[in-house]
Every structure is written in structure tokens, then in C-alpha cells.
């Protein structure tokens, strides 16, 4: 029996990077997957790859900062597959890299809207379905920067710290409904989000050196932790924040 057989999962930001890896790994473990991202970002291709591998998936376009679109996304999952068991709230952006006093209000709000309000809206509408079913699992993709600071990324760090706090609070609120809610904290991962860092050789080497394991993560390594937390194998796990960071936070 595959660990996610019979489960229906909605994964945001799923057209590439960690989200794509989650979609593919969840499907390989038996879940029916709703792949969600902005239009024209490659989500349909992810669905095609899952189906070629024998899995079941649908693409639903969604801007996670729009409450109506998020509500429609969750309803679409139920309409397509009959239930909503798992939410992986992964959609996120890096934002401008500059010190706090140079951050514009617009830049700040953009990062907070996607990285904190987005997961809040996803949880809000996921929980409506899960409370009725009295079961479910939510995995919020935070970051190592949900636990420590990082210069030149004030909005990103603030949003990820906020997401960890939101995760813990919601876990307390919904545990008696049979809903488990956890956050994962990836270290730096080889995804398009860090392409600018990779283009700067000295900065990239410093980032790699901050991970005692000696490299940055592959997306599938993060996705495997998300799959465990979403599965019944983690049935007594809720309210936690779990780094997947190659030792970054152990320094």
C-alpha cells in the first residue's frame, strides 16, 4: 500500500521547484493531486508528466493572494476527486534584496501577500472542507529563515517567521477536528528562486558553505519530508516546524 493512496492533495506553487517535486512524489505515493500555480507557468506540463507515470492529477490556475480564487481551487479539488485530504501551501516569492530602510511599502506588501497572506487564505479554505470531514493534513512550506534572520531579506524573513507562528496556532485550533498542521523549513534549495544567488559565484559558495552537509538541497529531498508529514505515518505529529536544511540551523 502506498503511503498516500486514496488521498487528495492540493499543492500550490506546483509548476516548478519544491512544489513540482511535491506533486510528482505525492502522486507516486498514490495521491490524486491538484497542481496549482499561476496561469502559463508550466502546471499543465507537470500534470502531463504525472499522468505519463501512471498518476492522477489536474491543473487549476490560482493566485493565492485572491481569496475567491483560493476558495474555487479547494472546491475544484473536491469536485474533481470527491474530497480534500491534504494541503501543501508552497507558493512563494523571494522579493527584493535590500536593507530594511530601503524597502518600499509596495515591495514589502508584495512579499507578505504571497508568502504569508497566501498560506493563510489557503488554510482558511482548506480547513472549511477538513473540519466538515473531521480529518486532514496541511503542510506549510516555510524556510530556515522562519527561525533565523538573514540580511537583505526583511520581508521574506518576516513572512516566514509569521508562517511558522500561524502554523502552530492553527494546529492548536484544529487538532480536535482531526486536522494536523505542520511547517517545514527548507534550507537553500536548487530551484529557480535562487538563480540570482547562483549567478554570483562568491555569494553562492558562501551559501553552500553555510550548510554543513556541503551542498544545497534538491527539491525532492524537501518533498519527501512534506509527504511524510501529510501521510498517516505522521499521525501523532502536529504543530511542528521541521527543518530540511543540511544542518544549517545546527551551527
TrEMBL record:
Transmembrane in keyword set: yes
The keyword ATP-binding is annotated on this UniProt entry: no
Protein name as it appears in the record: SDR family oxidoreductase
Keywords of this entry: Membrane, Oxidoreductase, Transmembrane, Transmembrane helix
Pfam families cross-referenced by the UniProt entry: adh_short_C2
Domain of life: Bacteria
An MF annotation (GO) of this entry: oxidoreductase activity
Annotated family: Belongs to the short-chain dehydrogenases/reductases (SDR) family.
TM annotation in the entry: 137-159
Amino acid at each position: 500500500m502506498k503511503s498516500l493512496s486514496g488521498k487528495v492533495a492540493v499543492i500550490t506553487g506546483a509548476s516548478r521547484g519544491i512544489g513540482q517535486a511535491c506533486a510528482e512524489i505525492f502522486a507516486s505515493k498514490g495521491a490524486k493531486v491538484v497542481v496549482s500555480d499561476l496561469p502559463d507557468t508550466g502546471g499543465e506540463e507537470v500534470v502531463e508528466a504525472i499522468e505519463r507515470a501512471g498518476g492522477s492529477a489536474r491543473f487549476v490556475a490560482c493566485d493565492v493572494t485572491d481569496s475567491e480564487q483560493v476558495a474555487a481551487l479547494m472546491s475544484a479539488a473536491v469536485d474533481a476527486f470527491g474530497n480534500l485530504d491534504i494541503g501543501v501551501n508552497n507558493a512563494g516569492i523571494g522579493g527584493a534584496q535590500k536593507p530594511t530602510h530601503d524597502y518600499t511599502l509596495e515591495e514589502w506588501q508584495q512579499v507578505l501577500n504571497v508568502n504569508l497572506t497566501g498560506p493563510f487564505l489557503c488554510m482558511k479554505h482548506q480547513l472549511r472542507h477538513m473540519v466538515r470531514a473531521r480529518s486532514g493534513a496541511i503542510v506549510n512550506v516555510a524556510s530556515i529563515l522562519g527561525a533565523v534572520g538573514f540580511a537583505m531579506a526583511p520581508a521574506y524573513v518576516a513572512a516566514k517567521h509569521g508562517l511558522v507562528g500561524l502554523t502552530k496556532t492553527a494546529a492548536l485550533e484544529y487538532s480536535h477536528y482531526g486536522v494536523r498542521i505542520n511547517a517545514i523549513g527548507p534550507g537553500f534549495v536548487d530551484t529557480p528562486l535562487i538563480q540570482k544567488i547562483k549567478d554570483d559565484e562568491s555569494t553562492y559558495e558562501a551559501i553552500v558553505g553555510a550548510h554543513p552537509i556541503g551542498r544545497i538541497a534538491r527539491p525532492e529531498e524537501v518533498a519527501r519530508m512534506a509527504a511524510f508529514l501529510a501521510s498517516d505515518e505522521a499521525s501523532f505529529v502536529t504543530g511542528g516546524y521541521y527543518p530540511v536544511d543540511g544542518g544549517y540551523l545546527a551551527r
